[in-house]
Amino acid sequence: MEYIVETIRLTKTYKQEHAVDNIQLQIPKGSIYGFLGPNGAGKTTTIRMLLGLIKPTYGEVMMFNKPFLKNRVELLGKVGSLVENPSYYGHLNAVENLEVYRTLLEVPKERVKEVLELVGLTYAMKKKVKQYSLGMKQRLGIAIALLGDPELLILDEPTNGLDPQGIQEIRSLINELVKKRGITILVSSHLLAEIDQMADYVGIISKGKLIFQDRIEVLRKRATGEVRLRVGQMEHARKVALAQGVPVRIDQEQLVIEEVDDTKMASLITSFIRNDIPVYRIQDHHKSLEDIFLDVVRKGGVRDVQEALNQ
Ligand SMILES: Nc1ncnc2c1ncn2[C@@H]1O[C@H](COP(=O)(O)OP(=O)(O)OP(=O)(O)O)[C@@H](O)[C@H]1O
User: Fold this and answer.
1) Could you tell me the pTM of the whole model?
2) Residue 41 Cβ < 6 Å to ligand 1
3) Burial category of 182 from C-beta neighbours within 10 Å (exposed 0-12, middle 13-18, buried 19 and up)
4) Which residues are CB-neighbours of 257 under 8 A, at least 6 positions away?
5) Are residues 204 and 229 in the same domain?
6) Residue 245 sits in which domain range?
7) Whose CA is nearest to atom 5 of ligand 1?
8) The domain spanning residue 47 has which CATH number?
9) pLDDT in the model for residue 222
10) Is 148 in the pocket of ligand 1 (CB under 6 A)?
11) Final residue of a domain: which of 174, 205, 220?
C-alpha cells in the first residue's frame, strides 16, 4: 500500500504532557482519511506537525515517501490545507481574496475561476466575503487550499459550526474532489457520523494516542448486533441462560445476549417460560458506530479497543 503520509512515533509534549503520543499515522494514497477524536484529543496538534507549523518533540513525518523536515518546501508545494479559521479579507470579494494567494503561489490566473467552480462559489464570486455565510467562508478556505492544485488536502474540522446543509455541502465537495481529481484528503472531526459518511479510512485519536486505524468497514463490521431482553427475575434468568450455554450479561436492567441464532433464542425463551421467568420485551439492538467510538474513547487503550469492539 502506498502511503502519502506516514508518521513515525510522532510525539508532541507540552510541559511533560503528551498532546500527541507516539502516533503512527498511515494515510493511503487516494483515500479520504477521517481523523477522529473528541475535543482536545490531539488532532490539531498532529495536523500542525504534519504541516510543519510546530516541531515534533520526538518522531518524524514522512510525506510522499520523503522526510518532511528535510524536504519541507518541496513537499508543502503539494499540500493544501485549511486549519482553523481560513484567513481572508472581509472587505474584498472572493476573486480578490483568491488573487492575493494566487500571486503568492505564482499559479496561472485561470486557476481562480477553476477553484471557485470546484467549491461551488462562482455565483457569489463578486460578493464581499464579510457577507458570506460560515459555510461559504469555509468553501472559500477550501478554494484557497486548492489553488496550488495539491495532491494532498488537509482539512481540520472543516464542518465545525456549520448548519446541516453546510455540512452536507462540504461533505459532497470532499467526495467530489477525491472522485474527480484523485487527491488524498485528511479530514479531522469530532463527529463519527460525519466521518462515517465520507471517509474510507479512519484513525481514532484519544488523549494523544492513536487507538484505532483501519478501513472504516473494519469498524463497521465490528458493530455486531445483540439481543436485549427485559425479563423478571434477572439473576435467575441469567443462570438459566448460562446453563444453556448462552453467554449473557446484565446491562441497564436488561439481559444482553450477543449474536445468537433463532433456534437457540427460541429454546432460551422456552426455558424462561418453563422456569416461570416473565419475558416483557425482546429487542434486536444494533450497536451503532457511535456506540463503538464512545466505548473506544472511554476506555482509551489499544487492548480495550478490541474489547469494546467485540462487546
Ligand atoms: N500550545 C500549547 N501549549 C500547551 N498545551 C497545548 C498547546 N496546544 C495544544 N495543547 C494541549 O494539547 C492537547 C491536544 O490539543 P489539540 O488542540 O491538538 O486537540 P484537538 O483534538 O485538535 O481538539 P480540538 O478539536 O478541541 O481543537 C490539549 O490538551 C491541549 O490543551
Assistant:
1) 0.79
2) yes
3) exposed
4) 226, 227, 228, 229, 241, 246, 247, 248, 265, 268
5) no
6) 225-286
7) 14
8) 3.40.50.300
9) 65
10) no
11) 220
